[in-house]
Amino acid sequence: MAAELHPRSGKLVGLSNSNRTARRNQPVQEFNHGLVLSKEPLRDRDVFTVRIDKKVNSWSGSIEIGVTALDPASLDFPSSATGLKGGSWIVSGCSVLRDGRSVLEEYGRDLDQLAEGDRVGIQRSSHGELHLWVNGEDCGAAASGLPPKLWAVVDLYGKCTQVTVVSCEPPPPSAERERETIERDEEEEEEEEEEEEEVVVRGGRDNGGIAALMNVAAMNGMVNGDEVPELSCSNSRPDKFPNSLESDAGLTEHQLFDVFNNAIVSFYRSEDEGGGEDGAGAGGGGDTGAGGDAGTDSSFRNDRGSSGGGGGPASGESGTGTVGGGGGGGDCGNSNSSPVGNEGAAPGPGTGGMMTNDALLFHEKCGTLIKLSNNNKTAERRRPLDEFNNGVVMTNRPLRHNEMFEIRIDKLVDKWSGSIEIGVTTHNPNNLDYPATMTNLRSGTIMMSGCGILTNGKGTRREYCEFSLDELQ
């Protein structure tokens, strides 16, 4: 295929050099609308490679690259690559997104750190895997199961303002042989580790199994007497959930709840292709930039583990949760949410200096964009139309045995896809460095997101129940 860009592109892109060089117009005033695609679909094994020609320091975030099944000839170009849906895989920073939703964190090289002159390429392997190449080195498989017809995508986003296509051909045989050797060695190591380290915890608190057991007790609602379903440790990615769980005797219900610490609610909005053309842009964008210029965006679009952002004045509508009455219809005036009372309740481990005999409220330490009110029973995400992350709140004390923590959804906005997420963690909020979303935590944490369950950031069940949290009103 020709190493050229398609003549149709984002509205702020100018093409030159026989459609091999793309430049984002108004690079200091605008960080979005710099999307370009390859002229033709990728052939298997071809690495579509571009060179970063120019960068500016006005924004955070930089070049993004990936593939899409959408034909550029008929594409309604979104403001950024992460706004592409319909079968699109994008590497942004060090994360991989599928149709705008993060599926893999801390992958490969951080694209935001690449400099002028660096080369970055994208490849669909003959096995249907997505590979990122940086300066001639393969970063490994980022995704699998890709369709056969895909166009390369490059987003001149944030700091990146100009790129040039330098090649679109298979990698040299030496590079592929090196990659295959590394992959073979990794597979052998993984097989050895699985044989030696696969554990299921029964009655103990080994860190290798707590998360799987927490998944069952906190979310699945399947605890009957002293039996809980059994789930072995898994290294599956967030987009790969098992379809069924095996049941067997395990921890007693009381032992299981002794492992739990705090309940979590995350007021989360991921991106939506139709998300506005205001300062935030449909695809998110950079952070506040140098000097906090107006019109910038602090979402990083895929959260990238960012826990910054600061709190600004409340504006517009936001996703809000309120503590509901015990087993009732969400009466925010009643903060005692235990359906069976507190007699015989025992505090969980690792509670620190937190009180264990007070009503369940939101902990005063919370995500950077959260505003608490109503005696810490109501939480609101600031700047809801500009930012979809950093909205995590936790309870002010650990959950007691057989205690239910319930919230009511007060407000929603239509700009983002994704919605409220809820779960439990063993982390003490007093000591926690709050992540952008709790699904970023890699230990002691279970979250329900949409209709699936994630344990320590990895998908452990695809369809937990018939409804999806994203569809709640």
UniProtKB/TrEMBL annotation:
Residues 183-198 have a biased composition (Acidic residues). SUPFAM superfamilies: Concanavalin A-like lectins/glucanases. SMART domains: NEUZ (SM00588). It comes from the Eukaryota. Residues 333-346 have a biased composition (Low complexity). Residues 277-294, 306-332 have a biased composition (Gly residues). InterPro entries: B30.2/SPRY_sf, ConA-like_dom_sf, Neuralized, NHR_dom. Residues 2-168, 359-473 form the NHR domain. Residues 1-23, 168-205, 271-352 are annotated as: Disordered. This is NHR domain-containing protein. It comes from Ataeniobius toweri.
